[in-house]
Write the structure tokens for this entry.
Amino acid sequence: MRVWAKVRSGLVLAVPLAVVLSVVNPPASTEAAWQRDQFASGSFGTVTIPAPTLNGQCTYNPGVLGLGAYVRILWKAPAGYSLANAELQVSTSGLGSALAPLTGYNLAANTTGNAASGYSTEVQANLLGGLLGLGTELQIAITVKDPVSGWTSKAASVASNAGLVAGLGGSCRNLPAA
């Protein structure tokens, strides 16, 4: 009990002493603040490159017995773009496709027309796609690439079928916009 009495009497003296000291020496005020009168803003958005349009039905020309066969595509670049911004993408499917890659194609050299009235592009069919056919389907897509952003548009596409032999039964059809 004596221990408790000593602690209690020490507490009785300590509490009033702390109150007296805090009144005599109040804590100093500070000028710190978490506020600033400057601010910044920003925004972002997406870029959509308009797709070229097909402005006529594509045609498949079988040539002479399949030699010199080609697909003609009629298309128009979107406003503000031209042939220089266009790219051609080609894929094949069917029995003859594994043996019939399209290589060395030059879009500008095989295209006539202008941005105002539209373009006509001829894509040559290779030997297997023209002479032998073998049910090969050639899908051709034209896209526009923006020179500043590097973004590419959706494609305007056609699909042609060379028929079975010598271009007989060959056809071409415009594909719906993606």
Remarks:
- The CA atoms of residues 65 and 166 lie 4 Å apart.
- Confidence is low (pLDDT under 50) at residues 1-7, 96-101.
